[in-house]
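Two proteins follow. First one:
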Amino acid sequence: MSREISESTTDPKIHRFGKRSRRAVLPAVFAASLLIVGIAALVPSDPPPAVPEGARGGTSTLDHAIRAAEAKLAKGTRDPRTLAELGAAYVELARVEADPAIFPKAEEALRKSLARQPDGNGIALAGMAALANARHDFAAARQWGEKAKAALPDNAEVYGVLNDAYTQLGDTTAAAAALQRMLDLKPGVPSFTRAAYEFEIHGRVDDARHALDRALAGATDPGDVAFCRGLLGELAFDNGDLDTAVLHFEAGLRAAPEETSLRQGRAKVAAARGRIDQALADYQDLVTRQPNLGNLREYALLLTSAGAPDSAARHYRLFEEQRRLEMASGSNVDLETSLVAADRGDAVQALRYAQAEWGRRQPVFVADALAWALHLNGRNAEALTYADRAASTGWRSASFSYHRGMVLTRLGRTTEAIEALNEALRINPHFSVADARTARATLVKLGGGG
């Protein structure tokens, strides 16, 4: 981060570009070759001393930053810096609260800032990049981010939003380069958590875990602690370790009791353990608190699996209402729409939306969604091409392996199908209440156990 930006912002702790930003104590020189050698060497072999999560800080700085900027503007100030910082803070608020209705407010402040300072307004440009990322317009995010980089070539947060955009577009080379530059400039919670994702999508689970441990060691704000705990819990869950997952989710909730992503993780663990009544109650509470697309989809799937089709249908209708709200705010939700159509057996719509999303971006998880949609339409030879693409980075994803196994089953490639389905269950035997059951049943039919 340049001296000018770091010393003259409205609030030095403002979360500016869509991710929480904290400076870690690790010297920047150690991060220079992080992605080449891996993070294990940077993390002590013994875990850091435990710090009581409830004592790690006070209220979030985000609300304070927004109130300060709004108060300054209410007094008649219209300087572009304050407008830019307010707009970027609104983007972060929309992310934290999962409220896309805030996006137009963010865009208005950012565009006013750019109108008042068209040249060299790096904060506003980066804010627009973060907003485009939040709306899933990743091509626009890349464009805004590159403009921001030209204005602020030494700003770590700019490289963070560029890393997000390139990752979501499937450009792994550019994503890694942006992340490396971010790590060189400012190792901390935002850069280490992004490094963890980079490691995870390339199948380096231990390195991902070490990166998240390093992020947690440097987290001081309760929100950052909860964020790191949530990611550690998700990583453990995705690799079949329910006990570790729930420990992280519970620890995160001690730091931030109202954090809904941690409640979602805890509900998911309950479902995986067969505690369906508890999971249903937890999901009902979750969608009451935060009826976002992901929560509504997961709850509807659980209701279907639990034999409550009417309740599931009601929550799919709520999903559709939320989808329309997100689209009205300028967000692209074609991937989520494809996944729900597939869940409901609407193969035509699943394929339509998956193809539309693939036309915009080509990361491995969109390849997986397109493979599954093609499979549901009986186009398994084509589906295998995209399943291969989904597997290309080495990501240890039980869902990817399951989808690939089902495609291979339909193609009559029994040995490979058995291998893929067994791999899905080895990675995470609890990856999906319904799909894990189908994987086992298919293995029995194929003579591969189960």
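Second one, unrelated to the first:
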Amino acid sequence: MDMEWMRLHLVKTCKLDASALTLVGVSGGADSLSLWGIMVEAGFQTAAVHVRHGLRPEAEAEAERVVDWGRKWGVRVMVEDADVRGTAASQHLSVEEAARKLRYQALFGQAQRLGAQAVAVGHTADDQVETVLMHLLRGAGMAGLRGMAARMTAHEWESELPLVRPLLGVWRAETEAWCQARGLEPVQDASNADTTYFRNRLRHELLPYLAEYNPQIKERLWRTAAVLAADYALVEERVQHAWEDCLIRAEPGWVRLRADGLRAAPLGVQRGIIRRAVGWLRPGLRDFDFSQVEQAVGLIQQDGETGGLELTGGLEMRLRYGEVQFIEPERRDVRRNYPQMEAGSEVVLSVPGEVPLGGGWILAAAAVEEVPQNLGGDPWEAWLDLEQVRLPLRVRTGRPGERFCPFGMGGHSQKLSDFWVNQRVPREARAGWPLVCSADEIAWIPGGRTAEFCRVSETTRRWVHLRLSRNPAEG
């Protein structure tokens, strides 16, 4: 193993600063032990975490060996215990999945506490090959067949702290040789030979069988992953541009996208945006498969303005009057998503003054004598001619058959029901939508327009400034 190449790789590809702390996950096997030792030899500041899964009798002795290596190298070692079997049972996970989840939670928890620049793990080229083959057998697109990345941010474990895998270009035989050359005896995990685990069956049964057809099968799969990783980066760049163009809003539990922008995107980009929206809500979701992506594409492309689809894990996808929405179950309450009042209710809005509408929404009013140069642009803000409205203002919901005369229609009125449709207000939000009224006449529909009779003109001398805002923490 070329140590100079590894040092440059750590800096250039993994983007690690040798003087900043990197937390290394160390099981004690040849891969993680060699990664840790390479970083120490190369002058990188490290700390190590060993997660004791408690699945084998020798777990205690293995932890002690990792601690001993830390003493020898002068590196801090933290040992964390994980209840793998209990977590697997309580969360309906396989033992493999539970161990992985608890391991990464421990690593990133410690990294945050120590202020580490990244978490480093010892996945090798062999692990990359097994991962690609696993994804191929389960069914995957480019995102799965590219394998693991040498550096990842915004992953399922942490939104900012990177996960790095410096050994993806190094074969397991090389890590074993590195340890042997330095007189190190890595931990031998007997469970790695247990073919009841899917990955082990790939390693010990399927890959040797495929090697009978192509002795270079591992190298070929590794190269395929490298080629697809570069292609995937290009696709993701296109998806990112389309995401920024289509995104209306993304917040915890809710993503809203422009339907027309999605429909105009190429099919591959549509799929990428759909996966990104689901991934934004559920970073660790693994069973969002091809069939669900295609159902989501079908909903986007269907005729009509409304529709819905139940996705995995209780997520819901909605098509609503020009929007494609992805919603967590707890966010389906319309009061959390839109400004709402009890249907048929009415409250007084003094000027100045404010009224809470629930769900964190607050409607505020103020009388002003100076206004900005450019009015408008924010649909949740309005400016009215104070001399044309009757105070106090009233805030209520719509009435059957009610009409509204919006500014810009030359004094013509329209049914409020038609206005809702034209403004693409979701059907379930209309009955409770707040209307700001002067006496009994609608002066402003928040999120929409002001009325013709109270519009601001060149002769306006005093203004009413209205603003509807929301505190997400209260929603």
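SUMMARY FIELD: The chain is about 40% helix and 20% strand. The first strand starts at residue 22 and ends at 25.
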